[in-house]
Amino acid sequence: MPPIIDLNKCIKCGQCVDICTEDVFYGSKEGEVPTVTYPKECVHFSGCVYVCPVPGAIRLRFPLPILLVYKPE
Amino acid sequence: MEEEFLECDVLCAGGGIAGLMAAIRAAELGAKVIVVEKGNVKYSGCGRSGNDHFETYIPEIHGRDMDVFIDELLRTAKGEILIGREIYHTQFAKAFDIVQLWEKWGIPMKYKGKWEFAGHSFPGRAMTHIKYEGRLQKTILEREALERGAQIMNRVMAIDLLGNGKKICGAIATHTREDKLIIFKAKTVILATGKCSRLYPSLTPGWMFNDPHGGVQTGDGRAMAFRAGAELQNVEMPQRHIGPKYFTKFGQATWIGVLKDPHGKPVGPFVTKPDRRYGDMIMEVNKEVAEEYGRSGKGPVYMDCTDITKEDYEYMMHWMKHEGNISLLDHMKEEGIDLRKNPVEFATYPLRCGGLIVTNTKAETNIRGLYAAGDEAFGDISAAATFGWISGENAAAYAESTEVPSIKNEKDKIDENKRRIVQIRNRECGPDWEEANIALQQVMNDYAGSVRNEALLKQGLSHLRRLKEKAKTLLIARNPHEIGRCLEVLNMLDIGELVFLMALNRKETRGLHVRPDYPFTNPVLDQAHVIRMKKNKSVIEWRNY
Ligand SMILES: Cc1cc2nc3c(=O)[nH]c(=O)nc-3n(C[C@H](O)[C@H](O)[C@H](O)COP(=O)(O)OP(=O)(O)OC[C@H]3O[C@@H](n4cnc5c(N)ncnc54)[C@H](O)[C@@H]3O)c2cc1C
Ligand code: SF4
After folding, report:
1. What is the pLDDT of residues B106-115, one digit of tens each?
2. Nearest CA-CA partner of B346 in B414, B280, B391
3. In total, how many domains does chain A have?
4. Interface test with B, best of A4, A41, A42, A68 (most B CBs within 10 A)
5. Domain identity same for B251 and B324
6. How far apart are CA A47 and CA B115, in angstroms?
7. What is the residue range of B313's domain?
8. Residue B455 located in a structural domain
9. Which of A41, A46, A62 sits opposite B209 (nearest CB)?
10. Residue B76: pLDDT above 90?
């Protein structure tokens, strides 16, 4: 479910919680690793991924229904 | 439930492009400005992760006659929006000033030191849009608003306007992270809440927030405006878009490729090879082309960039990042999709709610002190930025000339809003917002969808009203976040009802309003179709643009 946080890398700064307009991280507590409370409300605009100061601490897993359809070579 | 009372000259509902531009202008003219934003202005609204096309008229480039420029613009999808020409004149008399302001504030409006015109234009014709690097525009606009003294309140959702139907005196808002009601006494309110995105199902019905607008522009401004007595126009006229299949994102004009059928034949007459100046204009001429190809057995259709030159590929990828498509690029990278080798399927996106709040060239509505700008009135970046600015300027001037209003007579309305929130919060069981939203999307799709007739619309209207009553009396929310979602759905139920009423009244076929019981377009109805609330009843009329 999008987004996914790496517990070992996250420095608990809360920037992803702050930026998400849909408030997917609603209920997260200051100083703790954010909780992904409403994953289905994610709009996949990657605000959290690009605001995060630690490379690889957060990523989006794009859900299966939205996979892009393409022609293989 | 906690209550807070605040006072200001100008209250901007929505901190998107229009709301922030309004705040910047009103604050620099000395008004006390508050922006309330449901999310966080840094990354909210359609401009959150960037845009790359800004339509602008430059006399030295386009010639002295602005109407020639406007005529060209109206040949594209822009022509679907039915507003008076004086509105365009006002926009394009100002838009280039705004372009230069943005450049000064640090939003790069030039490419390699020059105005770069590309996209949204037909080969061989005048070019109407400059390319700009909008990726960081929201943080820059936030900074400019704060520097001028505007106050920004994130996680605050405007839910109702205060006033007597003729004059505005403030608004009610709810905090989306705390059980708290905020009551604003305001001389003016600028509605800038954007489009209405979750009224119809998405391309992936099981995944409702897969919406190219993002998920929280839910027509709150229109619903509030209507309830306060403001006029709405053409709410029944739906719009559609075309773009990558399933991974729904806007930005068709940023693609440098050719829309092709499965055998590699171009679908449209405009381009046969990828061309960085034009993209493929077939998507502006007929957004339903992908669906038509599918239905007639000729599909699917693909955006084919495989013939692109190395330079144009780099150019396209550069602009994709600024066009809010960074996550699409990440997804393609993860999946090993390479646009130089893989055509990607394009789909016609489902219906979305059209219409607008009626405003004049000063962004005023018919209610004194109430303004609307951006997608709320008529949008895209240039219109949102320009009319945001204009609304802020006029609201500040009006605020200076008027007394602080009283909200003494608004007690009932404030109490009623408080009561409904407390009731939703206290219910132990019942449908949550999502269940109600699914039911609403279902009725909109099945009864006010791509084909409509009188019997269907009447049946849909009565079913929607039943749903609305149930939602009002049964909805539950476990926390302030879910309260916000419930209030969104209640707003969309109001808007859905207006779609039905206006669709019943439009006894013709026009654009995407298809009525087999009235199959012809009636030239006499080439007018504004306006609805407003009068003495608790809705009144519909036709009027010249
Ligand atoms: C990916 C993408 C690319 C695009 N590219 C272009 C482009 O290149 N060129 C172009 O011209 N147009 C483009 N558009 C369209 C353009 O972004 C919009 O027309 C423009 O952003 C509209 O600005 P706005 O301020 O009216 O609305 P928005 O920017 O959508 O802002 C509305 C704001 O109101 C807030 N809000 C909603 N309800 C409430 C409430 N009840 N209380 C408080 N706040 C609320 C929302 O959270 C949001 O921040 C694009 C759109 C998208 C999604
Ligand atoms: S922004 Fe990154 S580091 Fe900070 S809380 Fe979120 S995931 Fe953790």
Report:
1. 999 999 999 9
2. B280
3. 1
4. A68
5. yes
6. 29
7. 242-348
8. yes
9. A41
10. no
Answer yes or no: are the C-beta atoms of B390 and B374 closer than 8 Å. no
Question: Quick one: B198 and B248 in the same domain?
Answer: no
pTM, two decimals, is 0.98
pLDDT grade, residue B321 (50/70/90)? very high
Q: How confident is the model at residue B152 (pLDDT cuts 50, 70, 90)?
A: very high
Tell how far the Cα of B237 is from the centroid of ligand 2, in angstroms. Answer: 43
- Note whether B123 and B195 are same-domain residues: no
pLDDT exceeds cutoff 90 at B60: yes
**For the residues B111-120, what does the mean pLDDT come to?**
95
| Domain boundary residue, one of B81, B109, B133 | B133
pLDDT per position as a tens digit, A10-69: 999 999 999 999 999 999 999 999 999 999 999 999 999 999 999 999 999 999 999 999
CATH for B335: 3.90.700
Cβ < 6 A, ligand 1 pocket = A 21; B 13-19, 36-39, 44-47, 51-53, 157-158, 192-194, 212-213, 216-217, 220, 249-251, 323-324, 374-376, 379-382, 384
pLDDT at B421: 98
Q: Summarize pLDDT for B477-516 with one digit per residue, the tens.
A: 999 999 999 999 999 999 999 999 999 999 999 999 999 9
Report yes or no on B24 lying in a domain: yes
Tell whether B142 is covered by a domain: no
Same domain, residue pair B223 and B235 = yes
Residue B8 sits at the vertex; the CA angle it makes with B2 and B13, to the nearest 5 degrees, is 75
Residue A73 forms part of a structural domain: no
* Domains: count for chain B: 3
* Segments in B427-528 forming alpha helices (H): 433-447, 454-474, 480-505
Regarding whether B227 and B185 lie in a shared domain, the answer is yes
Tell me whether residue A72 is in a domain.
no
Question: According to the model, what pLDDT value does residue B62 have?
Answer: 95
Residue B40 CA: distances (Å) to CA of A60, B23, B139, B228: 19, 15, 10, 26
SS3 B477: coil
Report whether B341 contacts B257 (CB < 8 A). Answer: no
Residue B83 lies in a domain: yes
Identify the CATH number of the domain in which residue A57 sits.
3.30.70.20
Instruction: With respect to residue A39, please indicate whether it lies within any of the assigned structural domains.
Output: yes
Nearest CA to ligand 2 atom 1: A52
Same structural domain for residues B186 and B247? no
Asked if ipTM goes beyond 0.90, one says: yes
User: Of B14, B126, B136, B115, which is closest to residue B387 (Cα–Cα)?
Assistant: B14
Q: Are B444 and B199 in contact (CB under 8 A)?
A: yes
Mean model confidence pLDDT for chain B: 96
